[in-house]
Write a structure and sequence with these properties.
This protein has 229 residues and is α+β, with helices and mostly antiparallel strands. It has four helices and eleven strands. Helix 2 packs antiparallel against helix 3 (94-111). The chain is globular.
Length: 229
């Protein structure tokens, strides 16, 4: 694991601060992410606050006319070098690069992967406006700036309303959820693992989620990691 990130977290025994409700496990300790392997869990959230220095770097990165849009296949050993090369023409981002390298190391370590597909995307409009399940085994997401991912608890979703089952109606009218109060939202800085439809043995349990709609003039900096297929 990356030496500066997980503070030698013990993934075998969750800390006592873990909160587990149906399908969700969350904690302010990174070891909670290992709960994604539990049968009852389809979203695991490491709740954290971004350091002020990192937030400042992110703000500076989004000031240029061409803010970052990066997609790379990286290994933990070369991630820092690859990110330095990709961001070298933009504002200094030492803390951000270190944080992303930490997450690559964590993701690859959890799933025993040699490589991961990394995306750092600047968005000024909604990317995936409809509730859906990603066609991946599992995805790591964190939002460094702007509004964060919205999702529905497993026991509140009518999965027959996904895709064509919505009959062309918007989420608010399709019946995919019972009440707007069912919609949960990650917090800026949270690191979440979202099970997808390709999760082994989890065909009908992938996390139903969507992108939030940014406010006019608001930018969102989204970071994701995926399996390399």
């Amino acid at each position: 694991m990356h030496p500066s990130s997980l503070q030698q977290a013990d993934f075998s025994t969750p800390p006592p601060t873990v909160t587990v409700i149906p399908a969700l496990s969350q904690s302010d300790h990174p070891s909670v992410l290992a709960d994604i392997f539990r049968d009852s869990c389809n979203i695991a959230v490491w709740q954290r606050r971004l350091a002020p220095g990192l937030q400042q770097e992110v703000g500076n990165l989004l000031k240029p006319l061409r803010p970052p849009q990066i997609e790379l296949t990286v290994a933990p050993a070369d991630c820092t070098t690859e990110l330095q090369r990709a961001l070298q023409e933009l504002a200094p981002a030492h803390a951000l690069i270190e944080d992303m390298a930490v997450l690559v190391d964590l993701f690859c370590g959890l799933f025993d992967l040699e490589h991961a597909r990394l995306r750092l995307t600047t968005l000024d409009r909604v990317m995936c406006p409809r509730f859906h399940v990603d066609r991946v085994p599992c995805r790591l997401v964190t939002t460094y700036l702007g509004c964060s991912t919205q999702w529905l608890p497993h026991d509140t979703v009518d999965r027959t309303k996904l895709g064509k089952g919505n009959n062309g109606l918007p989420d608010e009218l399709s019946g995919i959820y019972r009440s707007a109060e069912d919609i949960r939202q990650l917090t800026n800085g949270d690191v979440a693992l979202l099970q997808g439809s390709l999760w082994e043995g989890g065909t009908h349990s992938g996390l139903v989620h969507r992108s939030p709609t940014p406010k006019p003039g608001e930018n969102r900096l989204l970071f994701t990691l995926d399996f390399v297929v």
